Amino acid sequence: MKENELLAGHIQELRRGTVVLACLATLKRPYYGYALLEYLDEAGFSVDGNTLYPLLRRLEKQGLLTSEWDTAEARPRKFYKVSPDGEALHEQLTREWHALDGAVRSLEQGETR
Amino acid sequence: MSDQRTGSTLTDRYVWSVTRHLGPDTGPDVARELRGTVLDAVEAKVEAGTDPDRAEKEALTELGDPDVLAAQYGEKPRYLVGPGLYPGYVRLLRALLAILVPLVLVLLFAEQFVSGPDGFGDIALQSVAAAIGVTVHVGFWVTLAYAFVERTRPADRQGEPLVAWDTGQLPEETPWRQVSLPSTVVHVLLMGVVIALLSWQFTGVSDPATQVQVLDPDLALPWTVLLVGLLAVEIVVAVLVWRVGHWTPALAVVSVLANASWATVAVWLLVQDQLITADLPERFGAVFDLPADWSVPTLPLAAAVIAVSAWEIGSCLNRTRQAALRA
C-alpha cells in the first residue's frame, strides 16, 4: 500500500511536465477541452480535467496556443490550436525529451556493463 | 445560462463558484467554457449508461473543489508566503523578535524602576503580556508585508527570493560552541530561582498569613542541604558545559548522577510525607480563603518529579551523544 503510494507519487512527478508536451503535440489540429481530455486519455495520457483546462488557458496566455469559439453548433465550444511559438517550443521540448531518453538509456547501459 | 430565478442546477452553482472571483476579462469566458466542458462530460457519462443526476454529480466531483479550480485559473498565489520568500521571512521574524522582545522587557522593567515597582506578580504578568503582545504584532505585520509583496510582485519573479543568495550572507564564523549563552543563562537563572524558593521555604516563611508554607521547615538539615546542593551542582555543570562548549561524558555523568539523586531524595521524602507540610490544605486555605477539604496529591507529585528528571537526563544524554558524533 505504502509502496504503491510512493510509486504513484514518483510517476506523477515524472509525468507532470509531459502533459504540456502531449498538448502541444496533439493541438496541431484544433480540439476543444473535453475532446482533448478524451483523446489524451485514449493515448495513455490520463489527465484530470481540473489540471488540463486551466493548463490550456495558461498556455494560451503564454502565447503557445490560440483559441477560437465555435458557436455554429448547439453548444458553443472553445477550440485550441498550437501557435507558431507553441510549435517552436514543441520541437525544443521533443528534442529535450529524446535527449533525456538517451541519457537514461546510457546510464542504464553503464550500470550493466 | 438560465433566465429562471430559482432551480439553478448543480452545474450552474459549480460554474458560478469557480468564476465568481475571476476578473471580468476571464470570468465569463471561463464560465462559458467550463459549462460546456461539464455538459460534455455529463453527456459522455449518460451515453455510457449512467443516470443523468448521478452523471452530473460525478462529473463535478471529478473536477473537485471549485475554489481550488478557481485558484488554478487565477494568477494569485494560493499561499500567504511562498517557498521563494519563506526563508527570508523566517529570518526577519527571528531577528526582529530577538531584538524587540528583550527590548520591550527592558523598557518595562525600566518603567517599573522609575515609577516605583508593582508587586512581583504584577511585573511577571505584565512581562508575559508584553512579550506575547510584541510577538503577535511582529508576526502579524511581517506576515502582512510579505503576503503583500508575494501578491504584488511580477508573476515571473514568484518563487524567487527578494535578494538573490550569495556566500556573503553566510554567518561570519561557525560557532564552536554547541550550547548557546542565552539557553545557559536561562537554565542557570531557573535553577537559581528554584534554589531561592527552596531556601526560603526550608527556613520557614516569615508571615504565614500571606505566604504559604508548602515545604516542611522541620525537614532535617542534611536533607535540605542535599536538595539545594544537588541543584547547585547542576548550575556548576551548566556553566562548565558552556565553557567547554559542548557536553562531555564526564559532565554528563555528574549531571545524570545529580539529577537522579535529587529525584530519588525528593520522591523518597515525598512518599515519607516529610517534604511537604502535613497541614498544607489548612495553610493554603488560610492565605487564599479557600476550603481546606483536600489532601496533598503525593503520588502525582512524585510522578511529576520523576518525569521532569527523566526528561532532563534524556536530553543530557542526547546532547552528549550528539557532541560525540560531531567530534
Summarize the model shown.
The complex is a heterodimer of chains A (113) and B (327). Chain A is of the alpha+beta class and 113 residues long.
Task: Write structural notes for this entry.
The complex is a heterodimer of chains A (113) and B (327). By secondary structure, chain A is α+β, with helices and mostly antiparallel strands. Chain A has a single domain, classed as Orthogonal Bundle (Arc Repressor Mutant, subunit A), CATH 1.10.10.10. In chain A, strands 1-3-2 form a three-stranded antiparallel β-sheet. Chain A has helices spanning 2-15, 18-26, 33-42, 49-61, 84-112; strands at residues 31-32, 65-70, 77-82. The mean pLDDT of chain A is 90. The termini of chain A are far apart. Chain B is mainly α. Chain B is 68% helix and 0% strand. Chain B has eleven helices and no strands. In chain B, helix 1 packs across helix 4, helix 8 runs antiparallel to helix 9 (249-271) and helix 9 (249-271) runs antiparallel to helix 11. Classes of the chains: A alpha+beta (113), B mainly alpha (327). Chain A binds chain B through residues 32-35, 38, 48-51, 53-54, 57, 75-78, and chain B through 26, 29-30, 32-34, 36-37, 39-41, 44, 62-64, 68-69, 72-73.
Secondary structure blueprint with pairings:
The complex is a heterodimer of chains A (113) and B (327).
Chain A: H1 2-15, H2 18-26, E1 31-32, H3 33-42, H4 49-61, E2 65-70, E3 77-82, H5 84-112
Antiparallel strand pairs in A: 1-3, 2-3
Chain B: H1 10-19, H2 27-47, H3 52-63, H4 66-73, H5 86-115, H6 120-152, H7 181-202, H8 221-244, H9 249-271, H10 280-288, H11 298-326
Helix pairs in contact in B: 1-2, 1-4, 2-3, 5-6, 7-8, 8-9, 9-11
Q: First CA to last CA of chain B: what distance?
A: 72 Å
Run of helices and strands of chain A: HHEHHEEH
Tell me, briefly, the overall form of chain B.
elongated
Total strands of chain A: the figure is: 3
The interface involving the most residues is between:
A-B, 16 and 19 residues
Q: Helicity of chain B, in percent?
A: 55-70%
Mean pLDDT of chain A: 90
Return Rg of chain A in Å.
17 Å
What is the H level of CATH, i.e. the homologous superfamily of chain A? Winged helix-like DNA-binding domain superfamily/Winged helix DNA-binding domain
Whole-angstrom Rg of chain B:
32 Å
